[in-house]
Write a structure and sequence with these properties.
about 140 residues; alpha+beta; Glutaredoxin; five-stranded mixed sheet; about 25% helix; Thioredoxin-like_sf; DUF1636 domain-containing protein; DUF1636
Length: about 140
């Protein structure tokens, strides 16, 4: 039996915030982007396999707005410079790229295959963590756990 890996699209909701006296004022650009992606996500063919999760600050403030694709055993990608005021078609390119990520076994997203907005906005490609295997599949190294 093969276990399906859960995929996640993280969206920074503090991106492009307006601050006054140390408090956020109004709706941030990240919140707007998250709302638009939430609407598109509902009708996306991978909505059950790819969760959408709001995140408070992804520490890429100078490249707002920011999203990330992550899944166990796959590369993690971080993209910035996404405009929350873009049309629905431009925002949909995030899900288009997420589909490519989902379909590749290691989550590789070659530059030439990414939508234009995500070619220019790449901030990081982080190597995959090893996916834990069951005890029966682990090689014996003389250590009892």
């Amino acid at each position: 039996m093969q276990i399906q890996t859960q995929h996640t699209l993280f969206v920074c909701t503090t991106c492009a915030s307006v601050w006054k006296d140390g408090k956020r004022v109004g709706e941030s650009g990240g919140e707007k982007l998250f709302q638009k992606l939430t609407q598109l996500h509902q009708d996306w063919q991978l909505h059950e396999e790819f969760s959408l999760q709001a995140v408070e600050c992804m520490s890429a403030c100078n490249r707002a707005c920011v999203v990330s694709f992550a899944a166990g055993g796959k590369y993690t990608y971080l993209f910035g410079d996404l405009s929350p005021d873009s049309s629905g078609d431009k925002i949909a390119t995030v899900l288009e790229c997420a589909t490519k990520y989902y379909n590749h076994p290691q989550g590789l997203l070659p530059w030439a295959e990414r939508p234009e907005a995500l070619k220019k906005g790449i901030l990081a490609r982080i190597p995959a963590l090893a996916v834990p295997t069951t005890q029966a599949n682990r090689p014996s190294v003389g250590v009892t756990v």
